[in-house]
Amino acid sequence: MILKSIAEQALHEALRTGGDFAELFCEDRRSGAMGLVDGHVENASTVRRHGAGIRVYNGLNSVYVHTNDTSLSGLLSAARKAADAVSGSAAVGDVRLVPSIPANAHPIKALTMDVAGSRKAKLLRDMDLAARAVSPEIAQVRANLIYWDSDVLIANSEGLYTGDRRVYTRVACAAVAEGGGESQSGSVGPGAMMGFELFEGRVDVVKEAEKAARQAVTMLHAEPCPAGVMPVVIDGGFGGVIFHEACGHSLEAQAVAFGNSEFAGKLGERIASPVVTAVDDGTLPGEWGSLNIDDEGTPTTRLVLIQDGVLINYMVDRLNGRRMNMAPTGSSRRQDYTFAPTSRMRNTFIAAGSDDEDEIISTCGDGLYAKSMGGGSVNPVTGEFNFAVDEGYLIKGGRIDRPVRGATLIGRGAEVLKRIDRVGSNMWMAQGMCGASSGSIPTNVGQPMIRVTEMTVGGR
Amino acid sequence: MQRSEFMSRLFERARQKAAGASDFACEACWSTGESFEVQVKNGEIYQYNVSEGGGLGFRALVNGKMGYASTQILDEDAVDLLVDGALENAALVESEDRQFLFPGSERYPALRQYEPRLERIDAAQKIEMARELERLTLAQDSRVVQVEDCAVFYESSETGIENTLGLKVSQRSNLIGGYVIAVAREGERVNTGFKLFFTMDPDEIDLENVAREAAREAVSGLDAKQAPSEAYRVLLRRDVAATLLATFSGVFSAENAQRGLSRLKGREGETIAAPCVTLMDDPHRAGSASSTPFDGEGVATCPKAVIEAGRLTTLLHNLKTAHKQGVETTANASRPGYAAPVGVAPTNFYFKPSDMGFDAMLEKLGEGLLITELQGMHAGANPITGDFSLAAKGFMVRGGKRAGAVNQITVAGNFYELLKAVEAVGADLEFQAPGTSCFGSPSLLIEKLSVAGA
Lengths: 460, 454
Hints:
- The complex is a heterodimer.
- In chain A, 19% of the residues lie in helices and 42% in strands.
- Chain A is of the alpha+beta class.
- Chain A has three domains: 4-99, PmbA/TldD superfamily (PmbA/TldD fold, 2-Layer Sandwich); 112-151 and 166-222, PmbA/TldD superfamily (PmbA/TldD fold, 2-Layer Sandwich), CATH 3.30.2290.10; 228-458, no CATH class.
- In chain A, helix 1 runs parallel beside helix 2.
- The radius of gyration of chain A is 24 Å and the shape is globular.
- Chain B is of the alpha+beta class.
- Chain B is built from eleven helices and 20 strands.
- In chain B, helix 1 (3-17) crosses helix 2.
- Chain B is globular, with a radius of gyration of 24 Å.
- Chain B starts with a helix and ends with a strand.
- The relative contact order of chain B is 0.13.
- The model of chain B has no long low-confidence stretch (mean pLDDT 95).
- The chains are: A alpha+beta, B alpha+beta.
- At the A-B interface, strand 2, strand 3, helix 3, strand 5 and strand 7 of A face strand 2, strand 3, helix 2, strand 6 and helix 10 of B.
- Strand 2 (40-58) of chain A pairs parallel with strand 3 (65-71) of chain B, so a sheet runs across the interface.
C-alpha cells in the first residue's frame, strides 16, 4: 500500500491552504460474485477496485477528493484539489506519522476468493435443489454468492497511520412459488465478516434455502393482509429492522448534529418504553457489521444507545463530533474510498428482555404477527418510517390464525418506541445492506420477539 | 499505462491464453469521469466532494460462455488479472444460453450528449448556486425554518466499448443539477419537502422554482392527518407514477420473463393495460443523460413503444434474450457500469402524455386521493409479483380541488392490475434523475387503490 513518506507528503500538501485536519483513506479491494438461475451457474465475475480519498477540515467544513491514481503525483494532485477548496488559518506544520496496527478480532480461515470455483458453484446448486425440494410449487430459484476482501490504510495529520483488512462473504437465495395464476417470493441472505468457513458450522445453506422456499409457498396461499390499526408482534432477527429504521438512523450524529433528528437534544431523557435497551456494537467477532477500526481509524466500541428506555448515547463520527462537542464512537463508515465517511450503524439490536414468547402472542388478542420482515426506510427529520412484512400471520384471540401477504408497517419512531410492551428473552441478528449518504454498508439488525401495542398496518 | 496500449496488450494476452478454444472473442468496456458536489448549510459549505477516475471491464467469450473481470488500475498485473479472471469465470458458467459479442452496427445516431457550456461553470459559481438555492428556500415561507440539505452537483463521463470483432464505439455526456430538502415547522408539527433538478442546458436552471416547490411540499403537508382506511380513486402525481414505473420496470425485461420472473412472459400482442396507456422507450430523447447511440453490447439504439394503446408490443431484449426467443434485439442491453455484466434495461422509459392538464385531472378525479409521495420502494414493492404496499403522503380531493393534507397512510395494489386500472393520463410528463435508465410519467388517474390509515 502507500508508503508512510508518501502519505506524509500528501497530508502536508492537503493542509497547505490552512485546513486544520487532513486524512488519507486508501483502499485496495478484490471482490467476486457468482450467480445461479434455473439450476445453472449463469455468471461469475471478479472485480478489483483501488483508489484513495483525501479529506480536509477547516473548522466545521469538510472537503473530500477521491481518485484512482495512488501514485505520489496522483495523491499530491488530489491533495491540491482538496486544499484549493479550503481557505483556513491553521498553521502548516510537518506531518509525522506513527504506525500502529489494530488487534484483529476477526481472523479468517479460508478466503472465499481462493476457494475453487467448483466448490462455490456446488454451494449455490445445493441451495437451488433444497429450495425446489420443498414444494412442486417452487418455479424459480436464484442463488448468489458475493465476497470481498478490502485492505484499507488510514492516515491523518494527527499522526495516525494504521490499516485494516476486511473480509466478507454472503450468500443469498430467492425462491418464487407459482400456482393459480399467481406468484409469491421468499428470500434469505445470511453473511458475515468471514471467509468461506462461514459455511462450515455457522450457515447451513440447505436450511436457509428451505426457509426461503417455505416463505414463498406460505405466501402463495396467504390472503391479502387487512388494513388497520392493531397490535403487532415482530419476531427476532431481521425484525430488528424496526429499530434500525425507526430509531437508529435518528441517533446517528449526521442527523443529530444539525437538529435533523427527532431525538436531538434528548440525551438523558426517556425516549422508549422501560423494557427497551438498545445497543450498537462494532466489536462482535465475525459479525457482518463489525470492524476492528472504523473508516477514520478509531477503534470500534460497544455503545449502549438506550438503557431501560433512557437515551444515553449517539453514534458519533469525527466531523459531527466537532459540531456536537462529543468524542467519536468508532461509528464512522463509508462504502468505499469514493465516499467521505459519516456516522453509521454497525451491529444494532434491541437487547434480550425477560418475556416469554408464547405469552407475548397469547395475550395479544387480535393483531398481526410479523414473522419475517423486509426492508424499510425512514425520514429522520419527522421520524416517519415504513417497512414491509415478508411473512405475516393474523393473530386471533391470542392464537396464530392464518398467513397474510402484502402487509406494511408505518409509524413514527418516537411513538413506536414508547409502545413496545413486551421484549422476549432470545435475541438474534440478521444481515442487511444499509444505504445512506456515505454509501451502502454491511450492517446487522437484531432483536428478540417484541410486541408493539398499536401500529398502522397497511394492506388491501 | 495508456488505455489504448493497455487494451491492445489485454487483447493480445487473452488471444494467447485462450489459444486452443474453438471459439474465442473478447471485449473491453471502459469509462472515465469526474464529478463535483457541494452541500451547504446556513450559507456555509459543509461538504465538498470532487472525484475523478474510472475503470475497465473485460469479458471473454470462450466456447460460447462469457466470463467477466474488471479493474481500476491499468498496469501489467491488471492485464493478467483480467485475462485469468475472465477465462476462469467463463469456464464456471453452466447456463446453456448462447452468449454473443457484437461486431458493430452499420450506423449510429448522432446525439448531442455533451454541453461544453457546463464545463465553464466553475466551482465558485456552483457554490454560489447552492447558497442561493438555500437562501431562496428559506425565504419562501416563515414556516420553512431550516434546510436539511442543499446541494449542487456536476457530472461528466465518457464510456466506450471495443472488441476483437471490430466494434469500437464511445460517447461523452455531462449534466448539472442540485436538490434541496426544506424543513417546515409549526408548533410540534414538522414536515419535509424535497425537490431535485438536473439539466444539460444552463439556461434552464430556475432556482426560484426549485425552492418554491420544495417549500410548498414541506409547508402544505404540515397539517396532515391520517385518512380513513378504504379503497379510493387515486391520482398519482407525475413523480409518484414515475417512481412506480421505475420500481416495476423489470417486468418488461425479456431476461426476467425468460426466467419466470415476470408475468409478461409470452404476452406480446395481448392487451395488458388500459387503452389510454402507451409506454415508450426512447434512447434518443434530447437533454437526457440516459440517452445513448449504442446499448451495452454496442448495438445501435432506436425509439419504440413497449405498450401501444394498452397492447404489449414487445419486451426489452439484448442479443442473448432475443436469440433465445428468435427475435431481433431491441438494443436494450444494459451495463450499469464497466464492472457489471450485461443485462437488460430501458433507456428513457415513460408513459406517453395526453393533453389533459393537472387541474383537469383533479377535476376528473372529483372525490378521492391525490398521492404526492411514496416511500420504501425497495422494501414494500415486489418487482416479481407486482404487489406493492407503500407508505404515502398526499391530499384529500373534494369537488375536484385539493382539500386537507394526508400522511401516515399506506397505499396498496398490484402493478399489473394498475396498468389496466388507468382511467386517464395527464399532460405533465416529468422525468426522474437519469442513471442507466431514466423514468418519466405524467400524472395517472387510477380507478381504485386500497389505503390503510386511521
